[in-house]
Design goal:
The structure is a single chain. Helix content is about 35%, strand content about 20%. It is an alpha/beta fold. The longest helix has 18 residues. It starts with a helix and ends in an 11-residue tail after the last helix. The relative contact order is 0.17. This is ADP-ribosylation factor.
């Protein structure tokens, strides 16, 4: 019974009928609290770039509400819902098999916004990060048209304008055609301290609002419980588990 009640509270909170008092917004999540519709925001990147720090230090007000879904033993999706926004946090890349790539792509496809994090202090992975991002958004079932893409260059020297400009030019040295019809922005940030995050997320909030107005006649994102939503995105079917491998 408690599980049913918890799921019902999640759904009611997501559509604005119920306020979850033990899960108040943070300064960043409050930017999205007055959006009229429900949204899914995917936070993704290669391993070790600052995703967990962003989630746990700047988005979450109550850590007990983070749900983790594990697939294939090494594919983890952390999920956190606050008001009418659900954040999905996921590692990609690392030479995973095709089954992992298909599963990861589903989360990109079902996102209303994507935050991609780049470790700007480890340029050895710059090309791999760019290629992995392009792989996800260029896929025919990947990021949908008009969905905003926020790229965070996480660096201890994020205020070094010359360095950030150089990094931006390097990352977009050959701007892929898959980005030509996307709304995207590049921000230098320090995720550990939070510097630069509010400006970046204000851009994301405004871009989501613009997308909503542009697609006002389209069907709204269906609100499910956190668990049901994850299963829906993964496309899990007991009779078709072979599709995952």
């Amino acid at each position: 019974m408690s599980g049913i009640i918890s799921q019902a509270r999640n759904v009611l909170a997501a559509i604005g009928i119920l306020t979850v008092t033990d899960n108040p917004p943070t300064p960043l999540t409050s930017l999205f609290s007055n959006l009229p519709n429900y949204h899914r925001i995917l936070i993704s990147s290669l391993d070790g770039t600052g995703k967990s720090t962003l989630l746990e230090k700047h988005l979450v007000s109550n850590h007990k509400h983070i749900s983790r879904f594990t697939i294939f033993t090494c594919l983890h999706i952390d999920t956190y819902r606050c008001s009418n926004v659900t954040f999905h946090v996921m590692d990609v890349g690392g030479g995973r098999p095709n089954g992992h790539h298909r599963m990861e792509t589903r989360f990109f496809n079902q996102a209303n916004a994507v935050v991609w994090i780049l470790d700007a202090d480890d340029l050895d992975y710059l090309v791999e990060s760019r290629e992995e991002l392009v792989r996800k958004i260029a896929h025919e079932a990947g990021l949908q048209k008009d969905v905003p893409l926020l790229i965070l260059a996480n660096s201890r020297n994020h205020t070094d304008t010359e360095n950030m400009d150089s990094l931006r030019k390097c990352f977009f040295e050959k701007t892929p055609t898959s980005l030509s019809d996307k709304s995207y922005a590049f921000f230098g940030t320090n995720i550990d301290t939070g510097d630069g995050l509010r400006e970046a997320f204000k851009w994301l909030r405004a871009s989501i609002e613009t997308m909503d107005k542009k697609n006002a006649t389209m069907a709204k994102t269906k609100v499910l419980s956190v668990e049901e939503e994850a299963v829906m995105i993964m496309g899990y079917n007991q009779d078709h588990k072979s599709d995952w491998v």
